[in-house]
Each structure stands twice: as structure tokens, then as C-alpha cells.
Model the fold of this input.
Amino acid sequence: MRPQRKNRSRFSQVLAGILVNSIYEMRNYPVVLVNTVLSPLSFLILITFVSRGALLGEAVMGGLLMSMFGAGMALQGDMAHLKNDFKLQDMIVSSPTKWPYYVFGMAASEIVYTIPALVVLGILGFYFLHLSAFGLLQFIAVLVMMFLMSIAVGYTFATFSSDIVQSYSFSRLISTLFSTIPPVYYPITYIPLPWRYLAYLSPTTYAAELAQNAAGYLTLSPTMVALDWAVLIGITVILLFVASTQARWREV
Done:
């Protein structure tokens, strides 16, 4: 009975995060969903028009990548708001709830919040992306890595943020550096040398290369695929380690 009660308690903690952070806003402020959908679609539409439809597939994949990354980064603003304005983190710290369950519940709420955008982009992907079963698995794995990476960054910055304005400033800056500048919505081959090497400073470049290679929009050698996976996994592991060891969960 005790393991069942413990599992039930953990599930209720995750469910509470979803209800508080996404269901409440989606139900009471439906207009927030417009921004969730338009944010990834705006770049998709722009790239499609500029390329006259030639980069539609890459733009759809970029929209999905950035939706997952944006969901994790949204964790920063939401957690900072709850921590600083409602002192929720102090209450969680003083309760039996451990930080991984709190973060998992908040991360799950961000996925729920992003569902409208994922549905729209998923429908576009169904019609315009031609992925094999193995390619689809690779693309899903890349999306998961992007989400985990952004969760680690968002959670870490949220615990150090002392003001919601400061938190949103960091969130916008990181999102710009990770999504707007790197070649996420288009192939990296569109960037002329030697500027192309600067794109590799962003981990999202490696994610985009793997996704585009899985769909056949970019041809990578097995060595490059292995290197991209190694970099993407390595950065994600490092960021998760930093989040678990350096984030300021409990004030000292």
C-alpha cells in the first residue's frame, strides 16, 4: 500500500503542476493560446514566402523544434513568477515534494500549453514531411533532446531569477540565440562560409541538422551524424547535471 500511496502522491504533484500552470490559463485566458500557435508559425510562414515554398518542409520541422524548445524555456518565466510572486517554491521546499517532481509537473504543463501549436504543426508535417519510420524516430528523439535541454536551462535560470522582468529578459535572449540566429528553419548550407562555423556555437544547429538529415533535406555522412548526436547528447547531459547540482532550489 505504501508504494501505491507514494506513486499516487507523485502523480497528484505532477497533476497539480499541469492544472495550476496550464489548464487554469488556457481556460480563463484563451487569448494566450494565440501566441503559442503564432510564435512558431510566424517564422514558418516567413521562410516559406521568402523561399517561395522551397523550404516549407524545413520550416515545419523548425517550427516543431522551436515549439519544444520554447516550451522548456517558458518554464523559466512561469517558475520565476510562481517563486517570486507567490513564494510557491518556498512552500514546495518545506513540503515532502522533491524538486524533480515539481519540475516534471511544470514541464508537463508546458507541453499541455503547447499542444495547439504541436497539433497545427503536426498536421502540416503529416502532409509535407516524408519521413520513414526510422527517420520519424530520429526526429522524435531530437525533439525530446531539445525539450530536455531547454528544461534544464529554464529551471536553472528560474531558481536564480529575483524578478519576473529579469526572467523574461533572459528567456527572450536565450530563445533568440538558440532559435532565430541558428539555421533551424532552413539548411545550414544557406549560410555562406566562414559565417557558417558560427552557427555551430548553438546546440540547436546540431538538432536541426539531424532532423533535416532524417527527412532527406540535408545529406550528412555517418560520421557527421554521430558527431551531431554526440554533441547534442553531451550538451543536454551537461545542462541537466548543472541544473541538478547548481540550481538554487533551497535558499541558503
User: Anything to note?
Assistant: The chain has one domain: 2-246.
